[in-house]
Amino acid sequence: MTYNCMIAGVGGQGSVLASRLVAEAAMRRGCDVRTTETIGMAQRGGSVVSHVRIGDSSTVHSPLIPPGKAHALIAFEPAEAVRQLPFLADGGKLIVCDSAVMPVAGALSGQTYNARTVIAYIKSKYPKALIINGQPLRAYSAKTLNVALLGAAAQAGAFPFGAGELLAIVSEMARYREQNIKSFEMGMAEAQKSLQ
């Protein structure tokens, strides 16, 4: 059995770190894990997609998730969610932060970006998508929004392990430790509100 999780965002949002936390939680369960990133201008503002494939080595040959095979897609930004929708499996979990980040190409061309329109599109295509209100999470700490979204995804059952296992990994992070723990818990709470 292979479990595939894709994490999408823009450079600077921490999607690579988030994928490493998910991978560490799976490895502690004794699973084989393959990860990779597809990065475009990752320093700031470009698309960053992390692939996490969990399964034994006989079932996971490539670190890249094929289209239509992601059991979970966690998007730190609405447009990045739409960009990666072809990878989501039928019945897969879709977790999206509603806080928009203007793509570099859009900013350079002077185009406008209306996140509400993008969210409406996502909801029309995936009515069961979990849309997370990013405002309180960003207001608490923009630096740990990635961990907050992992908390939301864990609360939604997006991983083949429990929220407590992922929180244990987060609790071991030396940098921004207290903020990360609080952000993870806030993400869980935001997901719980949305799931009711």
Can you walk me through this structure?
This protein starts with a strand and ends with a helix. The chain has helices at 15-28, 78-84, 104-109, 115-125, 134-140, 145-155, 163-171, 177-195, and strands at 3-10, 33-39, 47-54, 70-75, 88-97, 130-132. The protein has one domain (3-195): Pyruvate-ferredoxin oxidoreductase, PFOR, domain III (Pyruvate-ferredoxin Oxidoreductase, domain 3, 3-Layer(aba) Sandwich), CATH 3.40.920. Strand 2 (33-39) and strand 3 form a beta hairpin. It is built from eight helices and six strands; from the N terminus they run E-H-E-E-E-H-E-H-H-E-H-H-H-H. The radius of gyration is 16 Å and the shape is globular. A six-stranded mixed β-sheet has the order 2-3-1-4-5-6, sandwiched between helices. The protein is of the alpha/beta class and 196 residues long.
Second rung of CATH, namely the architecture: 3-Layer(aba) Sandwich
Order of helices and strands: EHEEEHEHHEHHHH
CATH superfamily: Pyruvate-ferredoxin oxidoreductase, PFOR, domain III
**How many independent structural domains?**
1
Please outline the major beta sheet.
6 strands, mixed
Residue windows where pLDDT falls under 50 for at least 5 positions: none
SS strand fraction: 15-25%
At the first level of CATH, what is the class?
Alpha Beta
Label the structural class. Answer: alpha/beta
The number of helices is 8
Report the helical percentage: 40-55%
Q: What is the CATH T-level topology?
A: Pyruvate-ferredoxin Oxidoreductase, domain 3
Q: Which value, in Å, is the CA radius of gyration?
A: 16 Å
Q: In whole angstroms, how far apart are the ends?
A: 31 Å
Compute the number of strand runs: 6
Mean pLDDT: 89
What spatial form do the alpha-carbon principal axes imply? globular
